[in-house]
Amino acid sequence: MDGSQALKLSCKHVWSYISDYIDDSVSAEERAAIEEHLEHCEICSAILDSVHNILVLTADERIFHLPIGYSDRLHARIEAALRGGESPSSLPER
Amino acid sequence: MLIRGLRPPLRDETENVMAVTAASPGACLPERGCSRTMTESSELDLIARILNGEEHLFHELIRPCERTAYMAAFGVLKNQADAEDVAQEATIKAFRALKSFRGEAKFGTWLLSIVLNEARGKLRQRSRMPLESLDGKPEEQEDFTPFPLADWREIPSEFLERAELQKRIETAIEELIPSYREVFLLRDKEERSIEEIAQIVGVSTALVKVRLFRARMALQKQLAPYLKQQIGGRRKRFSWMGARP
Ligand SMILES: [Zn+2]
Questions:
Q1: pTM, rounded to two decimals
Q2: The domain B132-234: what is its CATH number?
Q3: Phi/psi class of residue B88: alpha, beta or left (left: φ > 0; alpha: ψ in -120 to 50)?
């Protein structure tokens, strides 16, 4: 320490920042403090990696894949509405 | 469609710990809206043309949003058939009401808020319960500390070929409380920005972040022990078998 008021974080603090850190919505100062902590703390690094890993897996299209034919049926439905002579009315629906 | 690999790769376990912190996760996540294949002005052009009689262009307008429309409905309803119905209903509603779209938000944001309304309506109908009692579960009472880990070996996406692993992840997401699940799917499945999710769901960005944090922590807690076993367990069994005479 050079006497500057660097932010020091406990593991619990780091956990509370993990989500924002992943979204890159932490301040530069917070980011520096988190990364400083991660350098020395294997537990927090492992937890961050596990969360990150779970998010990558979740984003995979095999998780909650779209029903087969979903898009075709949706566009058929739109087509039916168009052919039925429907047009955007000015009546607010909501 | 999701572009995979946008998130930075996980730290390889052979790399040193500093490597994970070198690149900021999420820093390369672009804001992705329905209009990511469409600029805002071309979206408005398209809408103007539809309103001027080129109604078939509505197909083009909806295409970039259709996947998220389904996922947003699924987040509320947890049922494929119902989610598809709602996505269709909301799409037709949006078409009929297109004139009332003022362009204050992106078309996709507007559409998705219609989807969520429809989905909540359907849920009310299905459960014959007032929405308050569905949403009324306390959001505060859980403990959001993560499952502690000494190390983490990456589970590659190929592991999702295993039906059981896929099911475990889906079940864990389905078990999230509804308000967390909605936000989680919009962010981590559909990669919407926090700001857009706040608009779609109708809450503050701060609340979106809180829900997202809790959803992610709950999933880590639920899934990390199981996922760890998937990799760690294999290694153990292998060495045990190798040790047999
Ligand atoms: Zn720590």
A1: 0.80
A2: 1.10.10.10
A3: alpha
